[in-house]
Amino acid sequence: MSREVIVQRIEKSDLIDAKKELMIEIVQNKKEDDFDKKIDRLYRQFSKSSSFKKHAEKMVCRDDEKLKICNMMLVMSVTLTLFFLKAVLFSSYVVNFSVDAIVGCLAFVFSFINVRTKYRTLKRYNLVRDFIYLDGLSLLLCILFKMFFPVQVDFSLIILLVDYYLCKKRFKEKAFKMLEAN
User: Fold this and answer.
1) Separation of alpha carbons 137 and 134, rounded Å
2) Tens digit of pLDDT for each residue in 82-105?
3) Distance between CA atoms of 85 and 164, rounded to whole angstroms?
4) Closest among 115, 119, 117 to 139, alpha carbons compared
5) What is the reported pTM?
6) What 3-state class would DSSP assign to 182?
7) Residue 162: CB partners within 8 Å, gap ≥ 6?
8) For 15, left (φ over 0), alpha (ψ -120 to 50), or beta?
9) SS (H, E, C) 27-65
10) With the C-alpha atoms ordered 171, 173, 176, 180, is the resulting torsion angle positive or negative?
């Protein structure tokens, strides 16, 4: 059986995307081309092999770093976006409307880009549902605290930082479980 046939067979399987990528990467890195005797063992007991665990650890670490960067950028950009929204609602701008609007719009665009990258990465592990509730709740709380509490007490940044640390902690645990389960 050739590499192409094995790759096609893996792509058609009902595994999560991250596990498919790991399996394809390991098949592509194998030096021998004779998979006839080894394919069934490789396909059935894949998650128990040491090469899978090594590649899985590298992949999860790489995706964890990506999520850390996205979450840090989200904390900053969502905070700036919320500052702009509050300034618009209460007509109290830092510089003037034009400058605040430019900063607020750029922060919103960065937020959108980072949310898209974050959920694209989470989708590979089928973890979108777990994290969307956490992010939605934290965003809703940020908006409520930002609009109803005075400027001296800014809980929105604290809520976003708690969301950052919870996401960071939960991703590695859940990603390894998802890779081993499917």
Assistant:
1) 5
2) 888 888 888 888 888 888 899 999
3) 22
4) 115
5) 0.75
6) coil
7) 138
8) beta
9) HHHCCCCCCCCCHHHHHHCHHHCHHHHHHHHHHHHHHHH
10) negative
Gap between the Cα atoms of 1 and 109, Å rounded: 47
pLDDT computed for residue 11 by the predictor: 74
Residue 79 neighbours by CB distance under 10 Å: 19
Please state, in angstroms and rounded to a whole number, the distance separating the CA atoms of residues 148 and 135. Answer: 20
Task: Please state, in angstroms and rounded to a whole number, the distance separating the CA atoms of residues 14 and 12.
Answer: 7
* Sign, Cα dihedral of 174, 175, 180, 182: positive
Place of tokens 């499917």: 182
Phi/psi region, residue 113 (left: phi>0; alpha: psi -120 to 50; beta: rest), is: alpha
What stretches of the chain show up as alpha helix (H) in DSSP? 3-12, 17-29, 39-44, 50-90, 97-123, 128-148, 155-181
